[in-house]
Specification:
Blueprint lengths: L1 E5 L24 H12 L2 E6 L16 E5 L7 H12 L3 E5 L7 H12 L7 E6 L5 E8 L4 H10 L13 E6 L13 H13 L1
Parallel strand pairs: 1-2, 1-4, 2-3, 5-7
Antiparallel strand pairs: 4-6, 5-6
Length: 203
């Protein structure tokens, strides 16, 4: 199992590089380092998925470990590009994790891997699904190598939304309630960053 940090975004909506944010204190790891360390704690190898034309601070993760840079083979496809490239290179299952999840915990990833181990035959994606909304966490998921043909078809069809690549009947879902959603809180906008800081201050 390869762990893949999705860190290829430009952080345009946030207005600053989210990978370097130190939300848990200046002496704590930045978001990229924290995410890489989380993946390393549950997988044997970690790759940092980056845009080919953008600096990717793999050497600045701040944590010792086998971290490798993985450039998107095709530019401008967002997380879709990172996942399809990872599957092509790994030739096996990949556990992907977005780099902007300040409250993600190892226990959540362990639960994901445990469910993947007992998934229904034929399923090629294991992920979390919110009970109240049906929203699936496609950026916190395990994609099997067998999902690659679905990604290739989506590429041909012009589909870039990860949640639509794998049909529901080929996904293994772990249900969670809104009250359990904190680990999936992600930072896209300045308001999200402010909310994250408030939550950390209240913890």
């Amino acid at each position: 199992m390869v762990g893949v940090v999705l860190a290829g975004g430009l952080s345009t909506r946030l207005g600053q590089d989210k990978t370097r944010l130190h939300l848990h204190g200046e002496s704590s790891p930045g978001l990229l380092a924290r995410t890489a360390a989380l993946l390393h704690s549950v997988t044997g190898e970690v790759w940092i998925s980056c845009r080919g034309n953008r600096p990717c601070p793999v050497s600045e993760t701040g944590v010792d470990g086998p971290y490798y840079r993985l450039n998107d083979e095709v530019e401008g496809m967002g997380p879709f590009g990172g996942v399809i490239t990872a599957l092509r290179v790994a030739q096996g299952p990949v556990l992907v994790l977005s780099c902007d999840l300040p409250f993600m915990e190892r226990a959540v990833l362990e639960r994901l891997l445990a469910q993947r181990a007992v998934r229904r035959p034929g399923t090629v994606m294991t992920t979390f699904r919110q009970v109240e909304t049906g929203f699936i966490e496609s950026l916190v998921a395990v994609y099997e190598f067998e999902a690659l043909p679905l990604f290739r078809q989506a590429l041909e069809d012009g589909e870039r939304k990860l949640s639509r690549v794998v049909p529901p009947d080929l996904r293994e879902h772990i249900p969670y309630a809104v009250r359990e959603a904190l680990p999936f809180f992600n930072i896209n906008y300045p308001a999200d960053l402010e909310m994250a800081r408030r939550i950390i201050g209240a913890l």
